[in-house]
Amino acid sequence: MTPLYTLPAIYDPSTKTGLTESFAIAKYLDEKYPEKLILVPKGTKVLRKAHVNAMRAIMEPIWQFMLPNTNWDLNERSEA
């Protein structure tokens, strides 16, 4: 688990494993439960990296405008 307490998060009681972050969860589920629906298709690493890089290029310039507004929507207890 991350000390930042981020969501999404899962806990797998069969392996006593806790995880956060969407991609890490998807990879874990694919590795531990291969008989189920595969979430991250094999052979897509380069495509996923290109997608992440493209999203960063778009999102990073606007974080400065989005993040300061986050506390305005939190209740008092969550702001602490």
Automatic annotation (TrEMBL):
SUPFAM superfamilies: Thioredoxin-like
Lineage per the UniProt record: Eukaryota, Fungi, Dikarya, Basidiomycota, Agaricomycotina
Family matches, as Gene3D superfamilies: Glutaredoxin
Origin species: Dendrothele bispora (strain CBS 962.96)
Residue ranges constituting the GST N-terminal domain according to the UniProt record: 1-37
Protein name: GST N-terminal domain-containing protein
Xref: InterPro entries: Glutathione_S-Trfase_N, Thioredoxin-like_sf
